[in-house]
Amino acid sequence: STLMMNYRLSYTLASKNQSGIKAYYPRIKVLADGSYFLIYHDNMHGGSVYYAFSEDCVEWTRPQVLFAAAPITVNGVADTKCYMTPDACVLSDGRLVAITSYRAGASYQKAIAPHGVCVKFSEDNGKTWGEEQVIYVGTNWEPSIIEGNNGEIVAFFTCIAPSLYQYGSETSPNFDHRSGGAGCVRSKDGGKTWEPNVTGAPYIPQYAMRQYMFTDELGIKRYNDQMPVPLLLNNGTMALAVESWNMKTNPYKFSIAYSTDNFAEDVGLDRTGPSDRQSNLFSLAGPYLAQFPSGEVVLTNHWGGKFLYRLADCEARTFYD
After folding, report:
1. Is the pTM of this model over 0.70?
2. What is the 3-state secondary structure (H, E, C) of 159-198?
3. Which of 72, 198, 264, 312 has the most C-beta neighbours closer than 10 Å?
């Protein structure tokens, strides 16, 4: 059924609506009124973010732009502000929040300040949207957003601060972003304000999940845990799935952590955390989590050119073939 849905989705977007848009990184959410909301970006390395609606996950409305790519200038050079890897969450008050990364397309590995994470809120199931709100500034990718069982909204994303500064300058020939982790910012007032309030150097958010990998030839410790995807389990525990990349040996492995307080602990910059986690269980990339009302957890991912899934127990601690 997943393959059929992806096929029909691709066919509808490209043919029936004659949009000619390629849908990268799609996410589908059930809205408060029972209809479906699709969000994606239109270029492999970022462009504009689009959204569409469906009553049955088969026929979709014509896509509309939610975050539009725009020309910018970085260090005096013309560039493009690109949006990519969006996600969305339906909040308990019925509002819809969409989240996305943005970056300077040509200057991605040469600057930090033109990158960040932003959100938009809708109070009418996506018909109209509020203004774009920047909630984090700094190099990042693959954000996700969730509401905890106490109403707190948490945005997770892959983050590399402050490793860029360990070489002295973001313009250094040794500029590097191979060390990172799962960072987050959170809102306790429904999305009006976010903490920590990160708008400049050294661009450090709270780190919710991070794993020591190795120490490189310059004596710098390398950390990872990236592409974080949260799931609020039926038992009230929040699970956070990541791909863990050891850039020295180059495997991508599945890791997962658990929290009963929305990952309130900051694991810091120099240790593996949080304490309640399972690390490097098996090979995968691009994890995503869901849970049936009956309890079974589903983990999807891609690996070896295939899209795969595994079932897990109701606590997302035992994963099967």
Report:
1. yes
2. ECCCHHHHHCCCCCCCCCCCCCEEEEEEECCCCCCCECCC
3. 198
